[in-house]
Design a protein that fits this description.
Helices cover 70% and strands 10% of the residues. The longest helix has 30 residues. With 319 residues, it is mainly alpha-helical. Helix 2 packs antiparallel against helix 3, helix 3 packs antiparallel against helix 7 and helix 5 packs antiparallel against helix 7. It folds into two domains: 222 residues, Cation efflux protein transmembrane domain (Alpha-lytic protease prodomain-like, Up-down Bundle); 84 residues, Cation efflux protein, cytoplasmic domain (Alpha-Beta Plaits). The protein starts with a helix and ends in a 7-residue tail after the last helix. The protein has eleven helices and three strands; from the N terminus they run αααααααααββαβα. It has a three-stranded mixed β-sheet with strand order 1-2-3, sandwiched between helices. A hairpin with a 2-residue loop joins strand 1 and strand 2. It is a multi-pass membrane protein.
Length: 319
């Protein structure tokens, strides 16, 4: 039991780290906003609360996604995580960005008198330290997963939204903290509390941009994305290497969860192959593929003449 709990915490270290940081930071920001009357600090407090809620939703989504397959969902519930990732993107846009921009506009129209900014600077410094720690954990874990792949390409190819969502959230949080610091400093430097409101709007714009980006990535996962092209080519090469396979017509893949892949293969079998030999060959291919690529959870292999497959599928569309 203890080993299972430890493994689960290690698996979700990015989410737990971000949740702990955001809860502590959120309380401190609200206290600072109440004492100083800073709009950008209030915005940052709301931002931290939204981020905390997002991490809870992602942890919930991961738990739901691990449910075993049943008759109603024969491929499991893995893609439910993608649904909650999309909900997170909507919350960042609607609550995080929406409230930030609204608070900024209100603060510009009805600016509050300036108060001592010392508490703001203290909370901002602590927040940068905590958010930076969470960001460092997210970067370290994502770097470990991405390997030699470029950052942007790795994000686009990633099938685990928890990792890149926290990475984007923490990056946006750090940018927001620096904007808030500039807003607090500038409003006192030029004795104009409206500048703090403009800083709040700028934070909202950053959050909106991140939300749109996350929604785009989550939508692709929710609709269904193919496996990594390297995995697709490995499947194709493995099947093509079989002596009794004359041609691989197509390989179709789709992620049913971040770590589960469904594979559909159309191949032209040797005409002299008997039914029993064909069954043995298919069983051997399935065993070899699942051993070489543990992410593959289900395989469908269809014997099909190459000319028939060409009529059905456009050559070159290797999903």
């Amino acid at each position: 039991m203890a080993n299972t709990l430890t493994a689960r915490i290690r698996e979700n270290i990015v989410l737990y780290g971000a949740l702990a940081a955001n809860l502590g930071i959120g309380v401190a920001k609200f206290i600072a906003a109440g004492i100083s009357g800073s709009s950008s600090m209030l915005t940052e407090g709301i931002h931290s609360c939204v981020d905390s809620g997002n991490q809870v939703l992602l942890l919930y989504g991961q738990a739901r996604a691990k449910r075993p397959a049943d008759a109603a969902h024969p491929f499991g519930y893995g893609r439910e995580l993608y649904f909650w990732a999309f909900v997170v993107a909507i919350l960042i846009f609607a609550i995080g960005a929406g409230v930030s921009i609204y608070e900024g506009v209100v603060h510009i129209q009805e600016p509050e008198p300036l108060r001592s900014p010392v508490i703001n600077y203290i909370v901002l410094a602590i927040s940068v330290a905590l958010e930076g720690s969470s960001w460092f954990i997210a970067v370290r874990e994502f770097r470990r997963v991405k390997g030699d792949t470029g950052w942007w390409k790795a994000i686009r190819r990633s099938k685990d939204p928890a990792g890149f969502i926290v990475l984007f959230e923490d990056s946006a949080a750090l940018v927001g903290l620096f904007i808030a610091a500039i807003g607090v400093w500038a409003s006192h430097q030029w004795n104009d509390p409206r500048i703090d409101g403009y800083a709040s709007i700028a934070i909202g714009v950053v959050l909106a941009a991140v939300a749109v980006l996350l929604a785009r990535e989550s939508k692709g996962l929710l609709i269904g994305e193919r496996a990594d092209p390297r995995i697709v080519e490995q499947v194709r090469a493995t099947v093509a290497a079989q002596a009794r396979i004359t041609a691989v017509n197509h390989v179709r893949t789709i992620h049913t969860a971040p770590d589960r892949i469904f594979v559909a293969i159309s191949a032209d079998f040797d005409d002299d192959l008997t039914m029993g030999e064909g069954e043995t060959l298919i069983e051997g291919i399935e065993k070899e593929l699942k051993t070489a690529i543990p992410q593959i959870s289900s395989i469908y292999i269809r014997p099909e003449k190459q000319e028939d497959a060409t009529l059905t599928f456009s050559d070159g569309q290797h999903a």
